[in-house]
Every structure is written in C-alpha cells, then in structure tokens.
C-alpha cells in the first residue's frame, strides 16, 4: 500500500499499539476514524484497520476500489469481518478496543454487537496516548509543515493593504498558504471543533470568547462558524494575531505571530516581551521528565508577577492551558495545563502559546512548535518573533 | 439571542420538531451537534439545546460567556441539566431522543445515564427528517448562497493561466470564493467526510475512485485528504469539472460547471448534452409527490439509452445516486437513489448532478440546486450551463 520507508514506520507504530494493548490486556483494536487510519495505514479509506495484540494487522476496505497488499480484504459491511478474521486463524478478541470517543453511538454499538467481546475498551484513549510520542517519519513530516509555515508567514506583509479588514487580510494569507502547499483541511479532536484554516484576531475581536477549546476566540464571520476574524477593519494601533494552520503535511505545526498596524500602546509591547520571556524560560525548563503542569504554572506565575494575569490567555474568558500536543490533529496530548499529570517524553511534539489580550489593542504573544529531544526541546517553527509592523 | 425574524423561524422549527416527537411518543430531545444547534438556536455554542415535546425549549450553555435570553442556563457539565429542568417544572423524559448517529459513544452513554430514561430514541434520524423540509428563513439563506455561488463561477475563467495545474487553478478559485463571502467551512454528514471547500477534477483524475460517499472522487493532493485535485496539469483536450462549495451562508448550495482546455472529443460534448437533457427531463418530472427513486431511474435509463451507462456517475466506481438533499450539510435528505422511499415535498431543497466521466478527457455534466415549490421545482443556481472554454 505504501513506500518502504513509510512501511517501516507503520510497523513501528503497530508495535507500539500492540505493546499498549498488552498493557491493558486487550486482544485487538478495530480502528476506522480518519486520523487513526492514516496513522496506522498511511492513508484514509472507508473501512477498518484491525490489529491483534500479536501478529499482523488486517485491512478491511469498503472503498475506494483498487487498494492492494497483504491482508487487504474488501468488504461491503463490517458484519463480514469476524468470519474473515477466523479464516486467517485470528482469534475473536475477548477484549476489543473501539474508538469510544470518536465513533458515533450507533457505529460503536454495531461493531460491539458483531464482535460480541467479553469486554470492550476505549481505543481513542489508547491511540491518543500512543500517538503522543512521534516516530521518525512523523517527525520528518512536522519539518515539512514547519518549513511551509515559516515560508507563508514571510509573505504575510505582502497581504496587507491599508484599510482592509481582518477577513480580507486572511483571504490573501490563505491563498499564500495554499500556494506553499497547505492541504487545507485542519483537523481537531472533539465535537464541533470546526475551524477554517486558522484564526486571525484583530483589535477587540481578540476578546470575544470562543465556544470551543481553543486558546482564544473571536466572533467569526457568521454564527455558523463562531471563531476568528469578524470583519474588523485593520486600523492604526491595532494588533493582528495570525495563527493560521501549519498543514503542509498531514502533521500540523502550530505557530502564531503578531503584526501591528502602526504603533501599539506600550502595554502591548511589554506583554509581548513577557510572552517571549515565558517562552524562553519554558524552553530552558522543558526536557524529558518535565511535568507539563509545571510548564503552565511557570508561565502563569511569570504573567502574574508582571501584573498581566488579567490579560493572560484572554480577558472575558481565559484558557487554562499554555500549550498542547500537536500531530494529525491540532489538539493532541499532552496538554500544558495545571491539571495535567503528563511528563514530557523524548519525541513528543507540542505547541507553546503564551498569549495576552490587551483591551483596545488586540492579542499579542508568540506560539511555536517544539520537538522534545533526548535532553531538551528543539524549536521547529523558525521565524522572526518580534511584533512585525505592517 | 437572535433577531425577531429568525426567532419566528426558530419557533416554527421547534413546532415541527415537537410534532415529529409526538409522532414517535418522545418526551424530549437533547441536541448538541453543530448543525442541530444552529438549526434550533441560530448559533453554535458549547452546550445543549433541550426541547420538550410540549412547551418552551431550554438552552444549557458551557461556553462562550455572555449568551443571554429566556431559559438560558450556564452549566459546567451536563449532569446539572436534570435538576435545572426540574426547577423549571419540566418533567424528566420517559422517552428521550439523543443524536445517536452523531454523538460519540461515550458522550451518548453519559447523557443516557444522567437522564436514565425508560427509552432512548434517535434524534439524528428525527432531525434529519425534520430538516429535510426547509423554512422561509432557510430558503432565504439558500438564495444568498446561490447568488454568491454564481458570482464566483463567473470569475472562474480569470483564474486560469495556460500550463497551471488543477490545484493552482483551485487556489485562485478559493480566493474568489472567499472574497465573495464564502464562510470556508464545508459540512457533510457522516464519518471522515472531510472536504476542503470543494472539488476540482481534471482529466483522468476524475476516474480515481473516492473512499467517501460523494458523487465523484479524485486522488487528492495528499493521502490524508484523498479527494479532488491532485496536481494534474491542465492541458489541451482536458475537461475541468468545478464543484466548489456554495457556502455563502450557513446553507449550502451545490453547483457544478465544466470548463474545457481547448477542444474536447465529441463524446465529451455529447455526454454533457445528455446531462443537460436529463436535468431538463427531471425538472419537468419533479414536483411534490414525485418519488425520488423515479428521478434516479429516469436519469439512469436516459444514460443507458444513449449508450453512456458505463460513464454515468464515474467509471471505476459509480455512484448510485444522481442527487441529494442540501442544507446545513451538503448531503442531507432526500437522496435521489433507486432505493429511496422518499417523495418530494414542497420546500425540500436538493442538488441534481447527472455527470459522466470520459476516460482520457475528464468529467462532464451539470449540477444545480433546486427548491421544490407547490407544483414544480425552482432552480436556485442560475449560471451558464454549457461547457465553457478557457
């Protein structure tokens, strides 16, 4: 189905999933959600990926026609799977993992009934944990996204014309993104987390609280898409926070930069500098073994010490995290939140986004994507971090 | 929460849902999926909409801050809902409807346990059926989308330069869409149905089968997004089918036009003409009471009679429908498929898309969006339908 290099990486992923399954005494997992299919097979199809806790996986494909490879079986409906597994000498699972946080209730019940296992466990939890530590191929894909992301941001000043709105600015940036190879689709974990290519927040729209679990909100251009730019005119003294997707491969980098229309008030520059200092301190602290909660607490304490706590991660509604895992979805594990019990591990990837919202001006701060190395972190998204005047 | 005009329309929707609930002896429905929230409240928020089978609805909001109105209650978690309903004198439902095809298994189980009804029914089925017949405000929103859709398509020739790829062509069309007011997000019903702003199919990429339940496929630009344009160079003798989203309001129009690079083979023009004739015959046949299956059968028989059955709705994989309902999602009910048991009703809206794929040339045909009137159908998407030479 895939290239030799990717195949080796898929086998590494299968091994990790099998180890995780053995830890919870699961006999097999059946996956069909887009990101889990891509993770385990290198592509998205209509069908199922079945991995027993030992041995080779099977690919049950409904569509498209024409997929070939060992253990690829075409099916019309999932009810055919148990007999096909039996033909291959694979035992029916006593404990089966299904994607309980992603499959619809009806799809889950249908799969549970046809396998009728003694016990069912949550493949969403297991897969989100396994996917937290990235493989070599995945890391190479982040580097592709980071490069495209920085190349696009370098073109942002050319998208500005005096008197335009945040939306008009965004449309031109989206066009630059696509020409740089953005895939367009921007995947997030969780219900209703729809977002179109990213977010641009100008002026007081940065204060508008979000219904979703993103760091900042914005009213959006329509009540059916209540996030991001809302038609604010980019006028003198406004900060424009650009947080557009890094989807130049299937693996998402996350990166925010701030642009200024003319001169901003001193408080905005001060808060931006505090963001950079928080980033610097967290870069120094973060390494394998660092508790994610400590990273949030450090950031919050620094904001508080500077008298900026009321502006930290929003005003009317404040996000209680300063960063999050990245991958096939923009909000993977771990989360840099005070309640996190996770420790950083080598080959985790995360975005760090200390941000402030200054009433009357807009949002300031910085966001970058990082790879946890064997003794530190490596910044993946390399681009000018000061406020850039348009 | 919303304008007076929209409020009257929401009340009409609530009445229709209540009537449908009474038909299945349901006492209440709890909705939280994006399109159902928008349908019933005019906005999307993090939280729940509860409608008893008689009386006023309640709005349980987690986020964002600041929503006001009668029966708006802020909650931290859904477990607070039953007590709040009791305070308002609303009985616990004996039969509760939950979105069984849309909620995750875990979310569904959580809601079911906290209400603990004697019986649970499927709100997805009920809502998809209610949403099938549109209200006056919804119809006004389709007209906005249809206008933006046609205005964008008029700009398509200016997006073409000799020697560009289908993707480069698409990026410029996307930019025109956004400048015309496209909201960007393109919602579909069903798992993994991700699509970025629409599909452009040039040359033999139109033959690539899709993993999804769309009419045609295309390889896509990346295995993580296996649909649509794939980098095919737009060369002489290639047809380019443009099927980009009509998301100029929350209500989606669907519209396809074909552009030609130079001259196409005669078979392509013939098949395109057959598409237009099929459309014409279906327009004449369709009215309240027409079985949707008859519309598919008419289209297929006409394709067969012209000797074009092997090219109808694809080649390597052929879609078994010729149209579908449209609304907040691109694939609403009814479906124009031979297995459909639906009859057209006044104020349904649907897309009709008789298409052919000609090997070596690409896809041809037409797609328009229609409103079912009291005795006929009205075409909403008005724009030149012949093949347009670039």
Give your account of this protein's structure.
The structure is a homodimer of 390-residue chains. Chain A has helices at residues 4-23, 34-41, 81-87, 105-115, 123-130, 136-154, 166-179, 266-285, 292-305, and strands at residues 28-31, 46-52, 58-63, 72-74, 95-98, 119-122, 198-202, 239-244, 257-260, 323-325, 332-336, 349-352, 355-358, 362-365, 368-372, 377-379, 388-389. In chain A, a hairpin with a 5-residue loop joins strand 2 (46-52) and strand 3 (58-63). Chain A has 9 helices and 17 strands. In chain A, helix 8 (266-285) runs antiparallel to helix 9. The first copy, chain A, is elongated and about 70 Å long. The longest helix of chain A is centred in the first third of the chain and has 20 residues, at 4-23. Chain A has a 6-stranded mixed sheet with strand order 4-3-2-1-5-6, sandwiched between helices. A 5-stranded antiparallel sheet of chain A has the order 11-10-12-15-16. In chain A, strands 7-8-9-17 form a 4-stranded mixed sheet, covered by helices on one side. Chain A folds into 2 domains: 4-130, Creatine Amidinohydrolase, Chain A, domain 1 (3-Layer(aba) Sandwich); 136-389, Creatinase/methionine aminopeptidase superfamily (Creatine Amidinohydrolase), CATH 3.90.230. Chain A is an alpha+beta fold and 390 residues long. At the A-B interface, helix 2, helix 4 and helix 7 of A face helix 2, helix 4 and helix 7 of B. Chains A, B: Keywords: Aminopeptidase, Hydrolase, Protease. Chains A, B: This is Xaa-Pro aminopeptidase. Chains A, B: GO terms for molecular function: aminopeptidase activity.
């Amino acid at each position: 189905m895939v290239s030799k290099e990717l195949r080796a990486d898929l086998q590494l992923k299968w091994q990790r999933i099998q180890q995780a399954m053995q830890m919870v005494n699961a006999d097999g997992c059946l996956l069909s959600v887009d990101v889990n299919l891509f993770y385990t097979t290198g592509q998205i199809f209509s069908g199922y990926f079945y991995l027993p806790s030992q041995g080779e996986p099977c690919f049950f494909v409904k569509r498209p026609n024409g997929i070939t490879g060992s253990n690829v079986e075409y099916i019309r409906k999932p009810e055919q799977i148990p007999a096909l597994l039996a033909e291959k000498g694979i035992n029916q699972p006593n404990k089966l993992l299904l994607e309980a946080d992603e499959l619809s209730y009806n799809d889950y019940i249908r799969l549970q009934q046809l396998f009728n296992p003694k016990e069912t466990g949550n493949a969403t939890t297991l897969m989100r944990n396994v996917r937290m530590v990235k493989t070599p191929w995945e890391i190479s894909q982040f580097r592709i996204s980071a490069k495209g992301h920085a190349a696009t941001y370098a073109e942002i000043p050319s998208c500005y014309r005096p008197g335009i709105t945040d939306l008009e600015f965004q449309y031109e940036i989206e066009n630059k993104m696509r020409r740089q190879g953005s895939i367009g689709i921007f995947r997030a974990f969780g219900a209703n987390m729809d977002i179109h290519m990213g977010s641009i927040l100008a002026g007081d729209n940065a204060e508008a609280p979000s219904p979703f679990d993103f760091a900042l909100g914005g009213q959006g251009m329509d009540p059916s898409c209540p996030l991001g730019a809302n038609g604010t005119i980019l006028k003198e003294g406004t900060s424009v926070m650009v947080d557009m997707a890094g989807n130049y491969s299937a693996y998402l980098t996350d990166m925010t930069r701030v642009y200024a229309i003319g001169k901003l008030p001193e408080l905005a520059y001060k808060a931006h500098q505090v963001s950079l200092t928080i980033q610097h301190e967290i870069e120094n602290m973060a390494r394998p073994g660092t508790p994610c909660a400590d990273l949030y607490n450090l950031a919050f304490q620094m904001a508080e010490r500077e008298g900026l706590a009321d502006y930290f991660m929003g005003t009317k509604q404040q996000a209680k995290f300063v960063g999050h895992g990245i991958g096939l979805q923009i909000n993977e594990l771990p989360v840099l939140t005070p309640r996190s019990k996770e420790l950083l591990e080598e080959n985790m990837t995360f975005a760090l986004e200390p941000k402030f919202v200054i009433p009357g001006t807009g949002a300031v701060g910085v966001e970058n994507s990082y790879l946890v190395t064997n003794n530190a972190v490596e910044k993946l998204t390399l681009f000018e971090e000061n406020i850039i005047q348009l």
